[in-house]
Write a structure and sequence with these properties.
By secondary structure, the chain is mostly helical. It has one domain: Non-ribosomal Peptide Synthetase Peptidyl Carrier Protein, Chain A, CATH 1.10.1200. The protein is built from five helices and two strands. Strands 1-2 form a two-stranded antiparallel sheet. α2 crosses α4. The relative contact order is 0.08.
Length: 142
């Protein structure tokens, strides 16, 4: 049973998947930083200084009365909120990840097409074939 598990775990696909998951987690952190620290402030400026991360709809007040300075303040007060700004941030995050993966997959497909389109050079004839061709050419001259 251990040998079967070892064969399963050491298969190329499983190792590739593990590497992909680890790199994907690291890539996710980069994208989160890109979205939160670069994209959303720019989008906020374009929309008149709106901070999407603090956009929410108050459904019920918490222990302290509204208004709340931020989404965190509302949550700390125990208010029931629909944090649609977080959804906007997550959607932008998803779109950036999807676009990045699309570009990577498209580049890989283009590289595969170029590799497949380039015909391989025919193998050099063997010594026997070369010798027979020389004999044929000599006989043709007679």
């Amino acid at each position: 049973m251990f040998n079967e598990f070892k064969q399963f775990a050491m298969r190329g696909n499983v190792v590739d998947l593990a590497v992909g998951v680890i790199i994907g987690g690291a890539f996710g952190a980069i994208v989160n930083s890109f979205v939160g620290d670069i994209m959303m402030p720019i989008i906020g400026i374009l929309t008149g200084g709106v901070d999407f991360s603090n956009m929410y709809v108050l459904l019920r007040e918490g222990t302290q009365a509204a208004p709340y300075a931020s989404l965190d303040a509302a949550r700390k007060a125990g208010a029931v909120v629909v944090a649609y700004g977080t959804l906007i941030n997550t959607a932008v995050n998803f779109l950036i990840v999807a676009a990045s993966l699309f570009v990577v997959v498209k580049a890989m497909n283009a590289a595969k097409k170029r590799e497949a389109a380039a015909p391989a050079a025919p193998p050099a004839p063997s010594a026997e074939v070369t010798l027979l061709a020389e004999i044929r050419d000599l006989l043709a001259k007679r």
